[in-house]
Design brief:
The chain is an alpha/beta fold. It has four domains: about 30 residues; about 35 residues; about 130 residues, Ribosomal protein L1/L10, rRNA-binding domain (Ribulose 1,5 Bisphosphate Carboxylase/Oxygenase, 2-Layer Sandwich), CATH 3.30.190.20; about 80 residues, Rossmann fold, CATH 3.40.50. The protein is built from nine helices and nine strands. It has a four-stranded antiparallel β-sheet with strand order 7-1-8-9. Strands 4-3-5 form a three-stranded parallel β-sheet, with helices on both faces. Strand 8 and strand 9 form a beta hairpin. The longest helix is centred in the first third of the chain and has 34 residues. It is elongated, with a radius of gyration of 38 Å. The N and C termini lie far apart (about 125 Å).
């Protein structure tokens, strides 16, 4: 009997402890619910972040006092950057070996080498890059011009004329026709030529045409009263160039398939045009460097004495 009574007492004590634990848990939840809000410093998220921050600060204090050792993170081994030539394609690396970077080639040599080092299967464009001793921030040194290449560009150009007058050679013509296409966001041309009288109608399409470089401009020869002449020049191979923010002029001068003589005629015409646009404020060296390259091909340094 005594053992049964003792057992009953123990069971009652266990039940009482469990009841107290449940009651304490409920009380804690009630306090948390009362203490938290939907937003602000009393929200559940804010309280949790505050507890995490306090725990971090406590750990930092213990580490500073030497009570706890700081966790050592494994050091990440930084891989050295490979040279640029090693990051190029296999075909590029093969043809780049033919170019001596320490040598300045004559124009004829550079053209022959450019044709030989074109690594692509398609008819690549030959590009001329001229580094000028100018500051484009000054208006008189912001070099910009256009010219007709003697041998043309080798590209088929779609020309649109923003005028109701019919022009021979134009692919698209008519004010209403072009406006309807622009209203739909369609740009079916490479060059847009307009007369000064029609320019106000193109104002609302500046955001569409401007970023594409298609907005007619008197400096580029695309705003003119002699529309027929402008169309003829564009079809014949007119190119426009403008110095970039670093003082370099980039001009496409034809295709690899042109051959050496035609390319040389085009390049000399561009160099002569650039030279003729030398600002009066430049007293010293005007052309600092000349480079020739094909699409995706290596750069070839041309001697400045060729100008």
């Amino acid at each position: 009997m005594a053992e049964e009574a003792k057992k009953q007492v123990e069971e009652k004590e266990v039940e009482a402890v469990q009841a107290e634990a449940v009651e304490a848990e409920e009380t804690k939840e009630e306090k948390t619910e009362k203490a938290t809000a939907k937003a602000g410093k009393r929200s559940a998220k804010a309280l949790r972040e505050a507890e995490e921050k306090a725990a971090k600060e406590e750990r930092k204090a213990k580490i500073a006092a030497g009570e706890v050792e700081a966790e050592s993170k494994p050091k990440q081994v930084a891989k050295p950057t490979r040279p640029r030539i090693e990051r190029q394609g296999k075909k590029f690396r093969e043809v780049a070996k033919l170019v001596d970077k320490t040598k300045q080639y004559t124009l004829a040599e550079a053209i022959e080498l450019a044709i030989k080092t074109s690594p692509v299967k398609f008819d690549a464009t030959v590009e001329l890059h001229v580094n000028l001793n100018v500051d484009p921030r000054h208006a008189d040194q912001n070099i910009r011009d256009n010219l007709v290449l003697p041998a043309g560009t080798g590209k088929t150009v779609r020309v649109a004329v923003f005028d109701d007058e019919k022009v021979e050679g134009a692919d698209i013509a008519g004010v209403d026709t072009i406006i309807k296409a622009l209203d739909k966001g369609e740009v079916n041309f490479d060059i847009l030529i307009a007369t000064p009288a029609q320019m106000p109608k193109l104002g609302k399409y500046a955001r569409l045409l401007g970023p594409r470089g298609l907005m007619p401009n008197p400096k580029s020869g695309t705003v003119t009263t002699d529309v027929a002449k402008a169309v003829k020049e564009v079809k014949a191979g007119r190119v426009e160039y403008r110095v970039d923010s670093t003082g370099i002029v980039h001009v496409p001068c034809g295709k690899v398939s042109f051959g050496s003589q035609k390319l040389e005629d085009n390049i000399r015409a561009v160099l002569q045009n650039v030279k003729s646009n030398k600002p009066a404020s430049i007293k010293g060296t005007y052309i600092k460097a000349i480079h020739l390259a094909t699409t995706m091909g290596p750069s070839i340094t041309v001697a400045t004495s060729e100008v």
